[in-house]
Amino acid sequence: MESVNLSSTPVDYIPILIQLGVAVSFGVLTIIGTHLIGPKVRTENKLGAFESGVQVIGNARQRFSIKYFLVAILFVIFDVEVIFMYPWAVNFREFGVEGLIEMFIFMGFLLLGFIYVIKKRALDWD
Amino acid sequence: MEAFILEKLILVAIVFTISLVIAMYSTLAERKVAGFMQDRYGPNRAGIGGILQPLCDGGKFFFKEEIIPAGAHKVLFVVGPTLAIITACISSAVIPWGQTLTIGGREVVLQVADINVGVLYIFGVVALGVYGIMIGGWASNNKFSLMGAIRAASQSISYEIGMGLSIIALLMVTGTLSMGEIVAQQSGFVNWNIWVQPLGFLIFMTCAFAECNRVPFDLPECETELVGGYHTEYSSMKLGLYMFSEYINMFVSSALMAALYFGGYNFPFMYELGLSQNWITIIGVLVFFLKIFGFIFFFMWIRWTLPRFRYDQLMNLGWKMLIPLAIANIVLTGVITIIKDTYF
Amino acid sequence: MNNLFILLLVPIVSAIVLCFVKNAGIAKWLALAASLLEIGLSVPFLCAFTPDASVQFEQGWTWIASLGIQFHIGIDGISLPLVLLTNGLVPLIVLSSFGKSYKGNFFALVSFMQAGLLLVFMALDGFTFYVGWEAALIPIYFICALWGGGDRIRINLKFFIYTFFGSLLMLVALVFLYNQGDTRSLEWDTLVALQLPESTQRWIFWAFFLAFAIKIPIFPFHTWQPDTYTHAPAAGTMLLAGIMLKMGVYGLIRWLLPIAPFGVLAYSNVIMVLCVIGIVYASVIAFKQQDAKRLVAYSSIAHVGLISAGVISWHEEGLQGAIIQMVNHGLSVVGLFFIIDILQERTGSRNLSDLGGLAHRMPRLAAMFLIILMGAVGLPLTNGFIGEFLLLKGLFDYNLWYAAVGGLTLILGAVYMLRFYQKAMLGPSQERYIVADIRGHEVAVLAVIVFFTLFLGVWPMAVLHLSEASVTNLLNQIKF
Amino acid sequence: MGAIITLCILGILLLYLGLFKMNKALLPVALVGLLVALGFTLSAWNTDAAPLYNGMVVFDRYALSFSALCIVVTALILLLSKEYFRNISEHIAEYYCLIIFSLTGALLVNAYHNFAMLFVGIEIMSVALYILVGIRKSDFASNEAALKYFLMGAFSTGFLLFGITLMYGASGTFDLGALRNYVTSAETVSPLFYGGVLLMLCGLCFKVGVAPFHFWTPDVYDGAPILITSFMSTVVKIASFVGFLRLFSTALVPLDAFWTPVLLTIVIITLFVGNASALLQSSFKRMMAYSSISHAGYMLFAIVVIGENSVPSIFVYATAYALASVIAFAALILVKRMSGSDQFESFNGLAKRAPWLAFALTIAMLSLAGIPLTAGFIGKFMMFNNVMGSYNVTLLVLAAINAAVAVYYYLHVVVCMYFKNAEGAHAGHTTMMPAPINYKVVLGVAAVLTIVLGVYPDLLLVLFGG
Amino acid sequence: MENIVSNIQGIPLNHYIIFCSLIFAIGVTGVLIRRNVIIIMMSIELMLNAVNLLLAAFSAYRGDASGQVFVFFIMALAAAEVAVGLAIIIMVYRNTKSVDIESLSKLRW
């Protein structure tokens, strides 16, 4: 535990950049490669949207259930609350009991909101 | 500096190749495991025991015609799978594959990048993964694809909360965000985090399954309902990239689980056997991969054992079970740690 | 017993009580009783008043401690006549409304206004003064707008905003004065003792003057007045012309002269010219009027022009004349407006061309009308005479030419007033009017007015000796 | 601090009461909670006001007095809400809860001693309001108001934050006390700091809605449900002003040579724009919106000339304004319920139908116009006095002109009530349906308070140790 | 921490300030000229992120963590704001079938 290396330099991130570069080039090259290699015979049927062989009706980009949206909003809120816990969790021992209680209060409020959301049946899919 | 970059370049190349190969052979393994579970052979024509099967599949992907539907958004349609494979490939950058290896007097750390926010990095990259699916699904202009994409997004963000919360309990134990540190702390056998965080691990694993869109959480692409979901309209290597990214994700999450909870490269009695550092490292790497393979097998095992969830069950599990459980886990961990620190 | 605060309290209480009285019959008697009680209460003040320069019956409480603002009231020789005038006219006004079926709220407003007016005349603190100043405005606005005629909404809004703007300027000046000096205070004594630099006094002068000039109103600021007077109900007009415009003149004497003497000095010529223009202009316009009420309204502008000129003239005679003339004008204008109201009620018109030959049908009215008219014109032995005489004397001492032009007011006043009387009362009788002579409360009101018209005409010292010492003191106080 | 904690818990309690279908208990519980919070606020009156929680908040008398005012006004507004919310939607508990949360934010803004708390307070206050403004989900005006309010609120928050950031960059602190030290002790104040002050000024001006950052105000006030408008134009506005004043009076006073001209310009523009626009309105609600802009201009006087009198004068002014606004909006709710319109015409003949309502509204209008014997006059007097302290005679004359203009539109409604007769469908109604008891209480309390404070303002002023 | 601070300090502070001001300005411009509500909202987020970046830079320069804590606050509240804002936009969209700011013209300023 003594040798905890807290410091991190931009140099440490260079390998990540390297890996990113490799990944990007892999993805792009593959796409280009298939584009060049594959045969191209275009027919109208082939270019139409696939709906299990049934006649396509309407545009696919239409409105969808509000529930998904609700989930997205809840995610935004809860995920940000979770972010608050990271620094606390890492330094949890230093904060001791007081920090624990404070975080419990925070989580208590979070939980109250959470229970409210559940009770409001915002997460029920029927 | 040049040496450092060269070293890292080689390491990246190795990691990259390994993950691609593992991803490729996971497809074979999957079919083999399926065959085993269902008491049949699985692929066994190409090469001995079907060993060349992935290569054939890959070749087929390349030589198939690529179709971009007329109604699709051309650019995004191509960007989708590319993004998916990129995010899949870079998430492995912070995983420590082994301890240091001394080659010709030079100490090589078997980790691409030991940054102090490794866990956050993984979360960030994993969160990006959903964009690939979302973009591809939306760009296809197909109802199935859109459905799949939305489900994927919804599912992955739902389980991300549970995952984050379960990791918090782990962080309370480890006190660091660096992957290297976390694994180094788990030397030997009794120090593995699984012993102090069993519940956290279960939650994490469940969430990892969901994040990877693996059965029983593969609703975004369930072929019986959505005919492949977000990749309904994809063909040739673009489909291949999606599948690749999925298997790489599986590989990375297995590695993550092994590293976070099962000691990574650590194995019992590693220091007691009197081995030299290089040997410990090499054995460690092998042990690590053994653990990874174990998890990959577990993934497949589950796939052929459990039926798929309904969507409401999926959401209920994520929100109403895992999140409260994860919070309870945090509370438990906090209380126990404090009590332990104060009284023992 | 000589408690000024009670004098203030009675109208307020009666106003609150009257608010709840729905019955018109009860309301008017109640209002009359209250106003008579008020007179009864003010008589002891007159008796106990020693005619010297001091402020008497003073009462003061801390009002807003943190701002150093006092509620401070008192009476001296200048305010006593006006207090008495107010208290004396209000019962007349109430009485004059007996013929109408006003409900309690009307009388409540009148009572409330009475309180505001009294506060203005008694105030010895700038804040108190301002409160009274505004408090008097609200009820008269409602009286005029609720019971008035014509385009009452627009006219009264104009009146309100006009006067409110003026008073805001005064507020600015007061706030400025408040910040001068060592202690934060709006006490009259403190303000008078300030001795501001001349340049400051100049704009202070304008801020105060505009507020007062709009209220009085002096020539270019008078545009609200004829319309408002014409379209207000009779009682409203009486309140406006009889008492409220005195607020402005009183303000000039009480606040403007002592606080900004250099300002007055610097601009007295300008003001004088305005007053004189106002006198001539209003007289000419009055002469052309067909509407009797409008005629009296313009005559009022002419009269107050002269009064203001007297105040500005800075002579004892001018100030004394202004004070007595305020009382006189209050009496006569109330009488005139009441007479017009009676005429309108009887004949349905107050247009001079519709009237005529009423004298022999209404002899009592004709007689009283004539006496009041004489008072307004300023004939000897009536109250107006001594007032106008003193005012002109003051003006004469100031500048001969102003006095000369100002003197026109006597001649022109006689002309348009007599024309009014002639058109309304004399001449061929209009057969279509079946009119009865005045009776009951009408007689009572007019008789009181006639009595005082003659009484003050014979013995003006009744008022003058009250204010003499105070005026002299005021003039001595102002140091150049 | 007790008050803020109480309110937090109260909000959640209300939410859960709604969850368990105890809608009847909502209002009583909310009022009791507010009472408790008020008790906490007042009980802290005589304690030492040291910054708490690492200098995050400070509950000095300044904060406490405004907190108490906000709580009282909220209680009055909540009293009006009894039937109001029920008519709008079934999510009543949420609205109570959101109002309480918004109030919590307001209290935080009142008491901040660190920019973090200012930001958090403003956000809590605003985010709750974004929702409240849009609670008429199917009403287009309400939607639009919510969207506009949200966009403008978020936009102004951006300015505020950039300002805070620049000030932090220059001084290295978010703490007001430390900021003051920086301003007074640094030999040269960094240009970054000046930029920060300007941007913060912009952000805060957006929040309080003064010209030229006012353009969202009328639309939002107009589109929002009346009750919410009344909350916005009273509690929220007051709290924003308090935050504004605290920043300038605590930290930025030494730089007044820099920001006074800017603020002075803003004040003058605000007065004229607010008044001139209010003059042209045919809707009472919109008129109130514009009048709130011009009142914001008057309240800025206290900030333009910061002195020992700033706090009491802004307090008295805010109290008067809040009481009058509550009366006005309560009356508007009643009138609109009957006539379905918030135009001036719907007030026609109100004096005959509902004399006491008309009377209360008249008092409110007179108070807003600043006529003596109402609280509004005392507020105006103190504001004028404040400005006069530094001999800003010109500003004062401009203010006087504006006050005279303002009388016109305030009297407009009085004119409608007393001097015009109802036409059309409502002409037949000789009496209005009687106001519910809670309205009577609110109107009565507010009107009496307006008069009492106008006659005896020491009741309030004594708080500031006059 | 020292390491990262020294590295960040390798870049002149002015560069951060100019860069963030530019981003902020882009955000402001976006709010003012774009008509799509979603894009306006994104522009606002851009403004906030410029602020975050600058705060982090200042914080690193001064070696004072409070700036970074502030970033946390901003992120959390921005999230709340976005959640509410999105809900409002959905509500408006359901009524008007449009996310164009021009369609909001019932109330006129």
From TrEMBL, chain B:
What membrane topology term does the record carry? Multi-pass membrane protein
Q: Where are its TM segments located? A: 9-26, 75-98, 118-140, 161-180, 192-210, 247-267, 279-302, 322-339
Q: Which keywords accompany this UniProt record?
A: Cell membrane, Membrane, NAD, Quinone, Translocase, Transmembrane, Transmembrane helix, Ubiquinone
- Is Phosphoprotein a UniProt keyword of this protein? no
Question: GO CC terms for this protein?
Answer: plasma membrane
Q: Name one GO biological process term.
A: aerobic respiration
Q: Give EC number(s), comma-separated.
A: 7.1.1.-
Keyword Lipid biosynthesis assigned to the entry: answer is: no
Q: Reaction(s) catalyzed by this protein?
A: a quinone + NADH + 5 H(+)(in) = a quinol + NAD(+) + 4 H(+)(out)
Q: What class of enzyme is it?
A: translocase
Subcellular location(s): the record lists: Cell membrane; Membrane
Report the GO molecular function annotations.
Answer: NADH dehydrogenase activity; oxidoreductase activity, acting on NAD(P)H, quinone or similar compound as acceptor; quinone binding
Main localization of the protein described in the UniProt heading: membrane
How it assembles, according to the record, is: NDH-1 is composed of 14 different subunits. Subunits NuoA, H, J, K, L, M, N constitute the membrane sector of the complex.
Q: Which family does it belong to?
A: Belongs to the complex I subunit 1 family.
Function recorded in the entry: NDH-1 shuttles electrons from NADH, via FMN and iron-sulfur (Fe-S) centers, to quinones in the respiratory chain. The immediate electron acceptor for the enzyme in this species is believed to be ubiquinone. Couples the redox reaction to proton translocation (for every two electrons transferred, four hydrogen ions are translocated across the cytoplasmic membrane), and thus conserves the redox energy in a proton gradient. This subunit may bind ubiquinone.
- Protein name, UniProt field: NADH-quinone oxidoreductase subunit H
| The organism of origin for this protein | Sphingobacterium allocomposti
Automatic annotation (TrEMBL), chain C:
InterPro entries the record matches: NADH_Q_OxRdtase_chainM/4, NADH_UbQ_OxRdtase, ND/Mrp_TM
KW Plastid (keyword) present? no
Specify the domain of life of the species encoding this protein.
Bacteria
- A UniProt-annotated Pfam family: Proton_antipo_M
Q: What is its main location?
A: membrane
One Gene Ontology molecular-function label: NADH dehydrogenase (ubiquinone) activity
From the Swiss-Prot or TrEMBL record, give the protein name: NADH dehydrogenase subunit M
- The protein's organism comes out as Sphingobacterium allocomposti
From TrEMBL, chain D:
Query: Which UniProt keyword terms apply here?
Result: Cell membrane, Membrane, NAD, Quinone, Translocase, Transmembrane, Transmembrane helix, Transport
Name the reaction it catalyses: a quinone + NADH + 5 H(+)(in) = a quinol + NAD(+) + 4 H(+)(out)
> This protein's superkingdom?
Bacteria
A single GO cellular-component term from the record reads: endomembrane system
Q: Where are the transmembrane segments?
A: 25-42, 62-80, 92-109, 115-135, 147-171, 191-213, 225-245, 257-280, 287-307, 313-335, 356-378, 390-411, 441-464
Gene Ontology annotations of biological process type: ATP synthesis coupled electron transport
Query: Which EC class is this protein assigned?
Result: translocase
Q: What is its main location?
A: membrane
This entry's Gene Ontology molecular function terms read: NADH dehydrogenase (quinone) (non-electrogenic) activity; NADH dehydrogenase (ubiquinone) activity; quinone binding
For the NADH:quinone oxidoreductase/Mrp antiporter transmembrane domain, which residue ranges apply?
Answer: 114-401
Q: Where in the cell is it found?
A: Cell membrane; Endomembrane system; Membrane
- Protein's membrane topology: Multi-pass membrane protein
Q: What is its EC number?
A: 7.1.1.-
Described function: NDH-1 shuttles electrons from NADH, via FMN and iron-sulfur (Fe-S) centers, to quinones in the respiratory chain. The immediate electron acceptor for the enzyme in this species is believed to be a menaquinone. Couples the redox reaction to proton translocation (for every two electrons transferred, four hydrogen ions are translocated across the cytoplasmic membrane), and thus conserves the redox energy in a proton gradient.
Its assembly, as annotated, is: NDH-1 is composed of 14 different subunits. Subunits NuoA, H, J, K, L, M, N constitute the membrane sector of the complex.
Name the protein family: Belongs to the complex I subunit 2 family.
Q: What is this protein called?
A: NADH-quinone oxidoreductase subunit N
The record's gene field reads nuoN
Automatic annotation (TrEMBL), chain E:
Which GO molecular function annotations are given, in alphabetical order? NADH dehydrogenase (quinone) (non-electrogenic) activity; quinone binding
Alphabetical GO CC annotations of the entry are: NADH dehydrogenase complex; plasma membrane
Gene3D superfamilies, sorted: 1.10.287.3510
Keywords on record: Cell membrane, Membrane, NAD, Quinone, Translocase, Transmembrane, Transmembrane helix, Transport
Catalyzed reactions per annotation:
a quinone + NADH + 5 H(+)(in) = a quinol + NAD(+) + 4 H(+)(out)
Q: How does it sit in the membrane?
A: Multi-pass membrane protein
Chief location of this protein within or outside the cell: membrane
Main EC class the enzyme belongs to: translocase
Q: Give the Enzyme Commission number.
A: 7.1.1.-
Which compartments does it reside in?
Cell membrane; Membrane
Coiled coil stretches, renumbered? none
Which regions span the lipid bilayer?
A: 16-34, 46-63, 69-93
| Presence of keyword Hydrolase | no
Lineage top rank: taxon? Bacteria
Q: Provide a GO biological process annotation.
A: ATP synthesis coupled electron transport
Please state which protein family the record places this protein in: Belongs to the complex I subunit 4L family.
The record's annotation in PANTHER family points to: NADH-UBIQUINONE OXIDOREDUCTASE CHAIN 4L, NADH-UBIQUINONE OXIDOREDUCTASE SUBUNIT ND4L
What is the protein's quaternary organization?
NDH-1 is composed of 14 different subunits. Subunits NuoA, H, J, K, L, M, N constitute the membrane sector of the complex.
NCBIfam families given in the database record = PRK05715.1-2, PRK05715.1-3, PRK05715.1-5
The protein, known as: NADH-quinone oxidoreductase subunit K
